[in-house]
Amino acid sequence: MAQILAPSMQWQMRMPKYSNIASPMTTKMWSSLLMKQNKKGTNRSSAKFRVLALKSEDSTVNRLEDLLNLDITPYTDKIIAEYIWIGGTGIDMRSKSKPVEHPSELPKWNYDGSSTGQAPGEDSEVILYPQAIFKDPFRGGNNILVICDTYTPAGEPIPTNKRHRAAEIFSNSKVSAEVPWFGIEQEYTLLQQNVKWPLGWPVGAYPGPQGPYYCGAGADKSFGRDIADAHYKACLYAGINISGTNGEVMPGQWEYQVGPSVGIDAGDHIWCSRYLLERITEQAGVVLSLDPKPIEGDWNGAGCHTNYSTKSMREEGGYETIKKAILNLSLRHKEHISAYGEGNERRLTGKHETASIDSFSWGVANRGCSIRVGRETEKQGKGYLEDRRPASNMDPYVVTSLLAETTILWEPTLEAEALAAQKLALNV
Question: Which domains does the chain have, with CATH numbers?
């Protein structure tokens, strides 16, 4: 992101007006996803998003589409709530749906944790706590997506529930007073379904070297634009604070940006955006990969650069606060790296616009550093920093709360601070 701007109003858990959920644009905006045929009955050009069902003489696909597009509002006061949670790997997403009367009255629910790797078979019940609501671009109407976190029946957060700890950090009075903003750049790779090879690549072979693909256009440079565009619209419809998208350096790789978002909202919005992307690639018959280095060799990896600022950084004299934050980050480099995503050592090699995983560095406009500060921030004497270390599969609850904890709550010893200041001075 070039700049962190003032955050927009976020979709709230408790909505004052139920009518805010409804949207008159549902059918028009989502015909590309729900595969609605035109009036003449001919197939749309975006046939790749067609429901995966065989078209038979009795129009099986047409009848299925009619049901998918069915407006149930005249027949029931209930809406469909899709409960979404993070599975046992810490990166997979699970969901199931139920009818509810009103989004402000969402009940807790449960699921079989032994089937997701989150509980033993003899005591498998895991409880879902609804935490954030988004509009559902797949079902449309008043239907909603519900981001949940996970607890034991006794009310204890299970190990994969990283949101609980993040919420504690962001509710700390010292942290909330600093109004932490986050702008997260989520990179991802699209893979061909059967061969697990990047979209647009010759099977078992390689495309031309990197260079023409970043923000490129053309059938030989851009692979998966329909998916990226469909995802962009889905996020806007859902109420996710998406702020941009672009083709990435490696062909078949894309990026979208979410933010600026305040505190815990950043994690909620990223996780919901990932869920939407999983559903869209499912419909397209393409595999979504968040592997930080999906293809070994002279190809860029996939990161999740996290832009971050506090109220003190954004005010006059904020550049000194930024430098103090960088000093703290240098002292906790190992703690951050260990929490910044699995397989990140394959990406952070010091090549392909990354810093080495083994050392901490920072610089102005330097994309080969751990922390980058923009030219405009240096010029204005205030602004934000970009942490370039997080991998594409990082947990946004962990990364955002750890940044806030290290830069706002954690205080190094005077001796460690002086030593770190010396090292950073030599770096720059």
Answer: 18-160 (3.10.20.70), 169-427 (3.30.590.10)
